[in-house]
Amino acid sequence: MDPEHFALLEEARKALPEGFKAEISGDAIVMMVSPSGIHQRNLLVVRRQFDAHAPGDLLPSENTDLVSPGVGKSRNPDLTYLPAAVLETTDNQVPAEVAAIAVELVSPSNPENDWVGKVRDYPVMRIPLYLVVDARLKTVTLFSRPDGSRYHRREDADFGEVLRIPEPFDFDLDSAPLLPYA
Fold first, then answer.
1. Taking the domains of the chain in order of start, what are their residue ranges?
2. C or N: which end of the chain has fewer Cβ atoms within 10 Å?
3. Residue 8: CB partners within 8 Å, gap ≥ 6?
């Protein structure tokens, strides 16, 4: 994508009123609504497990923009883990390639954003791990081994099962405490 075009989209995204969450994917600005209680609860359940296993040099971050201007993408995962040094800024943007993982909890109003758009965008943005928690389907899915165009590995678990999270976290994610939407 032309850097000037990306800059215009980024300027429009930043001009949105407070309380709106928006991302850039190609020529589209994707807007999202505030999450539900179950969404927030499930995010906290997942985050606590990652926090317990995150290396000391990685910090959790919610609502930080991961940007890849060269490929025309700016995404804002529900949760990511970033090197502490990149968070020493007053800006809310960091280079996407420094993220150790992107975690998304699927929105019932726009599941395609997490299952199609982000499965397409995150490997292009060089994010090594992408975890999708889908309370509609009662599943947890981990995408890994990106090559710059797509993920080459997908592992699925139903709520109630464990899913192995590889290095740098190296633990079994317990999905039993997660709540479904219905």
1. 35-174
2. C
3. none
What residue type is assigned to position 30 of the chain?
A: V
Q: Which CATH architecture has domain 35-174?
A: Alpha-Beta Complex (3.90)
Backbone angles phi and psi of 60, in degrees to 5: -75, 150
User: Phi and psi dihedrals of 100, rounded to 5?
Assistant: -80, -25
Q: What are phi and psi of 40, to 5 degrees?
A: -65, -40
User: What would the pLDDT profile of 60-112 be if each residue is shown by its tens digit?
Assistant: 999 899 999 999 899 999 999 999 999 998 888 999 999 999 999 998 888 99
Strand partners for 60: 81
The DSSP code for 77 is -
* 3-class DSSP assignment, residue 175: coil
Give the residue among 182, 142, 147 at the shortest CA–CA distance from 161.
142
